Amino acid sequence: MYFPLNEKQQSWADSVLDSLTMEEKVLQLIHPYDHRYSESEWIELIEKYPLGSVFATRRDLADMKKINSVIQKHSKVPVLISADMENGTNFIKDTGLEFPAQMGLAASGIKNAAYQMGRITARMSRAAGVHWTFSPVIDLNLNPENPVTNIRSLGDDPDKTIPMFEDIIRGLQEDDLMAAACKHFPGDGVDDRDQHMLVSANLLPFDQWMELYGRVWKAAIKAGTRSVMCGHIALPDYQGMGDDIDHALPATLSKKLMTDLLRNELGFQGVIVSDAYPMIGFTCMFPEHELAWRNIEAGSDSVLFSEPERDFKFMMDALKAGKLSEERVETAARRIIEMKASLNLFEDAFGPDPEKEEYDKARSLISEISEKSVTILRPCGLKQLPLNKEKDKKILTVSLIRNDNAIRFVDLEEVDHELRQRGFIVDHMTNPSDKQLRDATKIYDKIFINLTVCNHASLQLRLSGRPASAFWHSFFMEAPEKIIYTSFGSPYVLYDHPYFENCTCVYGTYPVCQRSAVRYWCGEIEADGVLPVRPHKPQVKRWDI
Question: Residue 353 carries which DSSP code?
Fold first, then answer.
């Protein structure tokens, strides 16, 4: 038994496992993305391949419930439905609730907010038939140039991050509504590279890793997280790779990391799920036909974004060839089934719909967190704020964003709407030229330079190309008293833009963050947020020549 089950739950889990064939146990380990299939295709697929888990596509609530009902109705065993819920239920298009990023939660300093965020997320997700969240992010953002963690992290100090993610886990898992998956083992936030593009590494010496990340993971395990997401991240010192970090296996393919370290040394007995299959940090290590079974054989229990037809065949071939052991399949399937039992999916895969009052209270909390998180990175020395409706009538808002390959393009429309609602005349530019900005200093009373640089926006944290060229000729020197800078993402923007006379951070492009920024600009709220990370400063590095 890997989960603390009651008699009824354990009896159900044991009976299900006794009824499954080896082929069906292999299918419990497959975890596809549901966007590939229509409703009729799902019926055909789930009856042919009774899968263990499915990752939910972003949909309206009614569609979410409908497709999840279809999946459950046609499955032999209840299916775990998963989603990324790092900052709320924004995977539900119409009624989903979006909190500021985790770093914003940390910056707000609101007592009990982390627990409440977890609780709200669990209640509303379970009502949609979703039971497994790939959150919280418990990575320490030690390297300001890490392109993956950034504002997804709670900060860089374990003393401060541990109590917060413990509260998130408690809120998520209370009343057995949800399974949390802390991520990304063995710990992101050290490398300046991205496992979407290669195998990244946690480069700390193992003794230092134990002091920082080991402590974090022990706390998450003690807090009772039902699952852990392993990243495509190596831990070269522990793996005995020395300086040969380019050939170190990611945790998702490393028995030494998943089994020896996470299971045996740290004592985690819950479900291990891989990070997404298509990422280069996973797929660059072995041919396609070896990836899924190697992940399971190394210690994982669920292969995220695996494909049923393809990976079932590859895993069965490996099983028959003796490359994937029956014992490993049995153990992984038991963990998956027992996690389903712990969530009482055999009784009801859904939960009751939240009342309107719950939504109203949740929205109020989200606004409070967002407003309390507004953080001054550099104060306005020229007293540009608050805005004065008599003197600052004509305003230009400027969005600087790498939109060439952005995963989620946001042009901060809510900012303009909120300013117009307050009676200001507002024009907007996205990625303007330096000449346009020089000309603008002669026309507008105030110019807001809004940076939307953050993790996952473009797989890097720095402006380049046209957005960066906006600062050529230093237009801001013409009328510094007119310029206000705000980061709707990374708190480290002053590292690349030390010439900003002022700067504020609101930890995300979400509508609630945009509204909070405008409220601060207008003097309606104070900027009381406390930066959860150390400022990024240039350092002299020793180079071995």
Answer: P
Query: What is the value of pTM for the model shown?
Result: 0.95
3-state secondary structure 325-348: CHHHHHHHHHHHHHHHHHCCCCCC
What pLDDT digit, counting tens, does each position of 39-94 carry?
A: 899 999 999 999 999 999 999 999 999 999 999 999 999 999 999 999 999 999 99
236 φ, ψ to 5°?
-55, -40
Task: Find tokens 């069906």 and name the residue.
Answer: 24
Q: What is the DSSP string of 191-216?
A: -SS-TTTS-EE--S-HHHHIIIIIHH
**C-alpha–C-alpha distance, residues 488 and 135, integer Å:** 22
What is the C-alpha R_g of the chain?
A: 24
C-alpha–C-alpha distance, residues 531 and 545, integer Å: 37
DSSP category for residue 484: E
Q: Say if CB 352 and CB 122 are below 8 A apart.
A: no
SS3 content of the chain, % helix, strand, coil (to 5): 45, 15, 45
Residue spans of beta strands (DSSP E) within 371-523: 375-378, 394-400, 425-430, 446-451, 483-487, 503-505
Q: DSSP string spanning 207-269?
A: HHHIIIIIHHHHHHHHTT-SEEEEPSEE-HHHHT-TT-GGGPPPGGG-HIIIIIIIIIIT---
Domains of the chain with bracketed CATH: 7-342 (3.20.20.300), 374-521 (3.40.50.1700)
Rounded Cα gap, residues 487 and 504, in angstroms: 6
